[in-house]
Design a protein that fits this description.
The structure is a single chain. The chain is mainly beta. It folds into three domains: about 1-25; about 30-125, no CATH class; about 135-345, Beta Barrel (Porin), CATH 2.40.160. The protein contains one helix and 23 strands. A twelve-stranded antiparallel β-barrel has the order 12-13-14-15-16-17-18-19-20-21-22-23. An eight-stranded antiparallel β-sheet has the order 4-3-2-1-5-8-9-10, with no helix packed on it. Strand 2 (about 45-50) and strand 3 (about 55-60) form a beta hairpin. The relative contact order is 0.07.
Length: about 350
């Protein structure tokens, strides 16, 4: 009987020890982790990666990296040291960060800031004025058909951008080469280079250089260069819009028609939106050139597109290109339309 009682007490002791060990492990698992408490009562445990554009990202063990809107957050607690970039470009550093009652709080100093003044948590080096951020896209669309008609088509596109807190370099190139039954039916390309220098936000000044060739529109070479004034009208993920207006010197060299040179007013527009979600983007790009010596001569190149991610860093895009030239040579249509579906690598 005594042995039976001892055995029961020993089992109870082992059970309590096991529960204590599991509790300690659970506490250890939480210890050293960041925590986000949501208004619906949910609690996310992981590593806060950064916060920007009104969202905070946390890397979790169970669901990868999650993005949460700040207006759904009750509090954020971080264990690791953080760097915070405010809207007025002030840089604040702390051993830990807490967002509570719609205020940003640095635990070791007790200083608090209105949440709307927060721009970026853990900004990238370029956002702190250290070097440039390089982004870009390399894409292509290839069609090869054999049978009653032998067709080969190649469309390509390259975009690259270097951005710092004070200036921006942009390079873009796209082209098309088509062949049907051994006869070339399209041969054109465009190259654009831009430099922007930021003034008082949201204004900037820049220099544009543009070159294009289109064999089947009798255009051997057209190039222009000139300064412009730009403005970022809106800069939110849901809708971004910037526009530029300037003046340039244009030279046109034709295969058959007479060459031409003139002063022009030029403009560019770029708009984008993540309205469709899931990292997709609706976008619009336009370059316009207006001949100031012959005001009936206008060139407008527009691109309407929808891009969406595939796997890794690959993306697909469907685009409509409209190229209008009111001064096109005889026997050449004023408007070219191109429908394109491409796949590209984005970084």
């Amino acid at each position: 009987m005594l042995l039976h009682k001892l055995s029961g007490k020993l089992s109870l002791f082992c059970l309590l020890a096991l529960l204590a060990a599991l509790s300690a492990q659970a506490e250890d698992a939480v210890d050293g982790k960041d925590e986000i408490l949501l208004k619906n009562g949910s609690r996310l445990i992981g590593e806060v990666v950064d916060s920007r554009d009104g969202k905070v990202k946390i890397k979790t063990d169970f669901a990868g990296t999650l993005s949460v809107k700040l207006d759904q957050v009750v509090s954020v607690n971080t264990e690791a040291p953080v760097v915070v970039l405010m809207e007025d470009k002030t840089v604040v550093k702390g051993d830990s960060l807490e967002i509570k009652d719609e205020e940003l709080v640095l635990a070791e100093t007790g200083q608090s800031y209105p949440l709307e003044q927060l721009s970026v948590v853990n900004p990238q080096p370029w956002e702190l004025g250290q070097g440039y951020r390089w982004t870009g896209l390399l894409g292509a669309a290839l069609v090869r058909q054999r049978g009653n008609t032998d067709t080969d088509e190649l469309d390509y596109k390259v975009d690259s951008l270097w951005r710092s807190t004070r200036d921006r370099y942009t390079f873009g190139a796209n082209g098309e080469t088509d062949e049907s039954d051994g006869v070339k039916t399209a041969d054109n390309w465009q190259v654009t280079g831009k430099y922007d220098y930021f003034l008082t936000d949201p204004n900037y000044v820049g220099l544009l250089a543009f070159v294009e060739k289109d064999k089947f529109r009798d255009l051997d070479l057209r190039y222009l260069i000139g300064p412009y004034l730009g403005r970022q009208f809106f800069n939110e993920p849901i809708f971004s819009l910037k526009g530029e207006l300037g003046f340039s010197y244009v030279t046109e060299e034709y295969n058959v028609a007479d060459d031409d040179e003139y002063g022009a007013s030029n403009w560019t527009l770029h708009a984008s939106s993540d309205y469709l979600g899931k990292d997709s983007s609706l976008y619009f790009d336009q370059l316009g050139v207006w001949n100031l010596e012959d005001t009936s001569d206008v060139i407008v190149n527009s691109t309407f597109g929808l891009s969406f991610p595939l796997v890794w860093r690959l993306e697909a895009a469907a685009e409509l290109l409209l190229e209008y030239d009111s001064g096109a040579v005889d026997d050449v249509d004023d408007l070219d339309q191109t429908y394109r579906f491409r796949v590209g690598y984005k970084w």
